[in-house]
Design goal:
Helices cover 34% and strands 16% of the residues. By secondary structure, it is of the alpha/beta class. The longest helix has 12 residues. The N and C termini lie close together (6 Å). The relative contact order is 0.13.
C-alpha cells in the first residue's frame, strides 16, 4: 500500500502537489474542466491542514516558442481560483529567484501555481527526460511531495519521479481513487468482460495480450473491429484498417476465438460527414466505398447478450464515431445497459470517458478514469514510474 497524503504531517510545510491540469483548451478557454475539478479535494485537504501549497502541472506539448503562449496555465489559475473560492497566486515562471523568494514568504493555507512544467522542454526536454538538475531544483522548493496527477503517472518526468525521489512523498486523493478502482481488476467479480473500441489495434495490443487470458469475454467494436473482421476475410469497404496488425488479429482469433465478440452489422456511410446518408449493413454486405461508423442494431443486441450476467466490465474506447449523434447510438445503448443494470463498470480513460460525459453517463458508471495512457499501461500490466517512486506505508 502506498502512502496517502493523510499519512503525512502537512501542517506548516511547503507541500508540492503535482496535479494534472492538462485540459483541452481553445483560444485560451477551457473546454472541459474535469481534471481540474477532480483535483479539488486534494488541494482543499492540504489547505485545511494549513500547508503552504505549491501546485505544478503540465499542459500540452512544448516543441517551439510559439507553443508557450497557447499552453500557459494562466486560464487554469483563474478557473481554479473560482472553483476553490480561494486566491491563487500564479507564477509565470518554472524557476527564478523571484519564485524562490515568493515561496520562502508563503503563509500557511496559501496556494501558488507555477507555470507549465513542460516549458522546461523547450531546450533539451528537461521535464520529460527527468533532468536531474531540474528535479533537484524543484524539490528544493518543498518539504513534502504529493503526486495527484494520474494522467502522467506512467511517465518518469522531473515533476513527478524527479521530485518524488528527493522528498517525503505520498499520493493524493485522485490517484488513490484511480488505483483503488483499477486494483479491483486484479481479482474481479465474474463474469469479467473487457470492451475495447477506438480506432487502432496498435494502441491496444498490450491490453489485448494482458487481458485476453484474464477476461471471460472480450467485446471489440469501434474502428479497431474492422482489422479483426479483415483478418477473418470480410470485405470492410473503406473502413479503418490497421494493416500492420492483421496478422496479430489472426493469431488472437485463432487462439481465443471463443472469447472474442465482434460486430455482426454496422452503421455505414460513404464518408464521415454528418449530413451524409447512412444505412444499417451486415458485415458481409458493405460496399467497397462504404465505411462502418458505429455498431449496428443486431450488434447492440449481441453485445448486450454477452453482458447480461456480467459482474465486472472494463471499457476502453468508444464503439463508434460518437462525436456525431447518429453514430453514438451503439456506445450510448451499451452505457445505458451497464448503468441501468448497475454492473461494476470502469471506463479506462480517454475518448470513452469523453463519450460518457457527452452522453450523460459519466456520473452513473462505477469509475471513469482521468488518465487514458496511464490506464492503458496499468491494464497492460506495466509498472507506473510515478507510482513506483511513492513510499510504502
Amino acid at each position: 500500500m502506498k502512502k496517502t497524503m493523510m499519512d503525512l504531517n502537512l501542517t506548516g510545510k511547503h507541500v508540492i502537489i503535482r496535479c494534472d491540469f492538462n485540459v483541452p483548451m481553445k483560444d485560451g478557454k477551457i473546454l472541459d474542466d474535469t481534471r481540474i475539478v477532480e483535483s479539488l479535494d486534494t488541494i482543499r485537504y492540504a489547505v485545511g491542514q494549513r500547508a503552504k501549497v505549491i501546485l505544478m502541472s503540465h499542459l500540452g506539448r512544448i516543441k517551439e516558442k510559439n507553443d508557450l503562449e497557447k499552453n500557459s496555465l494562466t486560464p487554469v489559475a483563474i478557473h481554479l481560483g473560482d472553483l476553490l473560492r480561494l486566491p491563487i497566486k500564479f507564477i509565470n515562471r518554472t524557476r527564478s529567484e523571484k519564485l524562490k523568494e515568493i515561496i520562502n514568504n508563503m503563509k500557511e493555507g496559501e496556494i501558488i501555481l507555477l507555470e507549465n512544467t513542460r516549458f522546461e522542454d523547450l531546450e533539451g526536454k528537461k521535464e520529460s527526460s527527468n533532468d536531474s538538475e531540474l528535479a533537484s531544483y524543484w524539490a528544493s522548493l518543498g518539504e513534502v511531495f504529493i503526486n495527484d496527477a494520474f494522467g502522467t503517472i506512467h511517465r518518469a518526468h522531473a515533476s513527478n519521479v524527479g521530485i518524488g525521489s528527493r522528498l517525503p512523498n505520498a499520493i493524493g486523493f485522485l490517484v488513490e481513487k484511480e488505483i483503488d478502482a483499477l486494483s479491483k481488476l486484479e481479482n474481479p467479480k465474474r463474469p469479467y468482460i473487457v470492451i475495447l473500441g477506438g480506432s487502432k489495434v496498435s494502441d491496444k495490443i498490450g491490453v489485448i495480450k494482458n487481458l485476453i487470458e484474464k477476461a471471460d469475454k472480450m467485446i471489440i467494436g469501434g474502428g479497431m473491429a474492422f482489422t479483426f473482421l479483415k483478418a477473418l476475410g470480410y470485405n470492410i469497404g473503406s473502413s479503418l484498417l490497421d494493416t500492420e496488425n492483421i496478422d496479430f488479429c489472426k493469431e488472437i482469433l485463432a487462439n481465443y476465438q471463443e472469447k472474442i465478440i465482434l460486430p455482426v452489422d454496422v452503421k455505414a456511410s460513404i464518408d464521415t460527414k454528418e449530413q451524409s446518408s447512412s444505412r444499417n449493413a451486415k458485415i458481409n454486405e458493405l460496399h467497397s466505398n462504404e465505411m462502418g461508423l458505429d455498431i449496428g442494431i443486431e450488434t447492440i443486441d449481441l453485445f448486450i447478450k454477452h453482458l447480461t450476467n456480467a459482474k465486472t466490465v472494463v471499457w476502453n474506447g468508444p464503439l463508434g464515431m460518437y462525436e456525431i449523434l447518429k453514430y453514438s447510438i451503439g456506445t450510448e445503448q451499451i452505457l445505458k445497459y451497464l448503468t441501468d443494470h448497475k454492473i461494476e463498470t470502469i471506463l479506462g480513460g480517454g475518448d470513452i470517458v469523453a463519450a460518457s460525459k457527452k452522453l450523460g453517463y459519466k456520473e452513473k458508471v462505477s469509475h471513469a478514469s482521468t488518465g487514458g495512457g496511464a490506464t492503458l499501461e496499468y491494464l497492460e500490466g506495466k509498472e507506473l514510474p510515478g507510482l513506483q517512486v511513492i513510499d510504502e506505508k
